[in-house]
Amino acid sequence: MPLDRRERDFLEDTLPFWKKLTPEQQRSVVNGSGERRFAPGEMLHRGAVDCAGLYVIESGQVRAYSISETGREITLFHLFERDVCIFSASCMMKDIRFSIYMQASEDTRTILIPTPIFRQLNQDSAAVSNYTNSILSSRFSDVMWLLDQILFTSMDKRLAQYLLGHFDENDGTALQTTHDEIARDLGTAREVVSRMLKYFQSESMVKLSRGRIELADRKKLENTAG
User: 5-146, superfamily in CATH?
Assistant: First the structure.
């Protein structure tokens, strides 16, 4: 089913190359794309086995992650409203040799531009090709920053920075999450996170309860974060 006027307007406002497409190219996107909705935990992209196309996030949140040979997950980055899932069209990129998984973190609404349509746009339009390269560079920068954090930043600093960032995203005083979720985001073991959180609690930085972490002393946590 073709995109409706609201969805077309959303793409026009979100994709910087839209106005540089020819009318025929715009019609191809409008007629060939569709809205896709995902419940929390539902997969948008399952690594190398999937190549649905370019997802444009209308609302919600998507977690992009990788899985080690032992099955441990590490969150690479998150996508929010008006972000684009470029790796869900990774089969059109010959030099991509690793698998990224994408999962809805909350109720998420997207517009999917199928791979054949986006591939053709990428081949025919310099504006689309430049945008694709820009998004890829941005995402790889995110991954390189994460790699730098893992290799060169101690776990207590990483955890303190993580907590401060998530406190600020919420009401500033409490965070609803589990030790498993934090470990998955930081790419470490649950036991490591639990041990560090207990240490933070003993130092009166946070207060722990089931599925909840409360901020107790922001200054101490900031000092730990460096």
Answer: Jelly Rolls (2.60.120.10)
